[in-house]
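pasting phosphodiesterase I for the record, 595 residues
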Amino acid sequence: MFPPHRYYYLHNFLCALAWVGDRYADLLDADERRFLADFQALPQASQALMARMLMRRGPWFRASRLVYEEIGNAVGAAGPLAALGWLDAAAPMTLDELFDLHTKPELCRLFFGASSGSTSGASSGANSGANPGSNPGSNPESNPGSNSGSNCGPSTGPHHFASLRPTARKADLLIALRAVHDAPRPYAEWNPAAQEPVWRVMVGDLCERLRLMFFGNLHQDWSEFVLADLGVFQYETVAFDASSRAFQTRADVDAYLALHACRTALEEGANMPDLLARVHGCVSQNPWLEKRRAKVLLRIGQACERARDWPTAQAAYEQCAYPGARHRRIRVHERMARYDQALTLALQARDAPESEEESQRVARMLPRLYRAVGQGRPARPPVHAVPRTDLTLQRPATPASVEFITRDHLHQDDAPVHYVENALLNSLFGLLCWPAVFAPLPGAFFHPFQRGPADLDAPDFYQRRQDLFADCLAQLDTPEYRDVILQRYADKAGVQSPFVFWGALSETLLTLALDCLPPAHLKLVFTRLLRDVKTNRSGLPDLIRFWPAQRRYELIEVKGPGDKLQDNQIRWLQYCVSHGMPVRVCHVSWQEGAA
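structre below
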């Protein structure tokens, strides 16, 4: 359609708009449909300018900063956009937005008539205007506020800045000026002498909504197209039809945006009870959105815990079905000295845990809760002893990872040791089970730039694909699994996957692993991984040692001085030991007096 070296971004943007128009026609309102139609009718230069602006940080843009060879005259290209109301040069601009638009020297000239970033020139600049509205100004790039005194603008007398040093930072100037200039005003009033247009993008929210509908999230942006075009990222081709989309109703999109606004408000320190009420109003019939809402509730509860606001934290957790919320409720009951309630809830979790993680945490809490209510301490469940090795090594002359140092110390030609952590076993799983992971199930894939299925962390991820995973794992009962993994490693090289760590793999490592890891052990690992994909993808041991001649292996978790096993590491170690898989913990200390 367009030469890729000039208009690649516009081509990608048009493809995204067409995708949304085709798949979400019934969810678009009149303004959104009109935007799609009007964009198609624009001159190419105007289309390109709009796309460029939407892909950059806005919402305000100076014409002098919109220099693109393929667009040419930005002012001319902006004309049709302004005529549609998509760009506005007269929209009110806040002081913060003005500061975002200009450099510190420009702002000093604009407000004080100073010739540099120093505030020492404020006196002459202010006196020349004779009142707080005086602003000398000329060229906005080289001299947004000269000392001519011929124009009116936001000049501020030096008495407002007596506490500022001449080397005051831009942020300090902004804080000082906020007390004087608290009302938004058009850019022409901020800088009457400006000799270039400045525009505000007025369709940002509308285009943000379209971006959400295309990607199904707001953490991906239009750069995904560019990275794919450049070959930086490659994505699996999934055969999904026009009905495959993230949102089924317009209310779903509204709910997502409302939850996103709540998450932003949380990060900005909003009033927690008010925010909790807002999130309560975002209830949706969409299970995917309800999970997102539950996660926001969990984050609110955690923020309240940090603030020691126990009642609001408890209220958040009581509404929350996100994994981990029940454990936090128990902790808050305990913090509020409600030990009976805490114990009752902990016993419910013990008898019907939502995950191995919760079971582990509750087992650790119960003895303390029994003591708090005056009951005898119950017997702890038995644990399997994990083999341990203690190494005393020479401290490296230059800082280095203790895992790498241990790897190099243990490595032998006939027993090579590799640092793999979570990479190797996850990758073997991902390669073997590729068809199940990328199966085009409803609600899994919405657009061409997905690293994996959207429901990867959902509680029913495995259940929805149980038969598909069973077929993949059944290959471990035959000799063909080895060829399947190696062939898929070749065929899918570099394609994004939530399980495959391409940068950590090599044909040598894969061959060693397939030679030395029994398929029965692989099935054990993969089965546990599928029990809780989100949690069990991490926590695997750091190193793996191979004995190729004997076709055996050992997993090794390395702990340096003062380093303790994490909960998910403990769970993996216990699982391996209980199933007869060779694993050990290697505790490393440094020789005293070593260089």
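The mean pLDDT is 88.
The beta strands are 60-62, 87-88, 92-93, 185-186, 198-201, 388-393, 417-419, 543-547, 552-559, 583-590.
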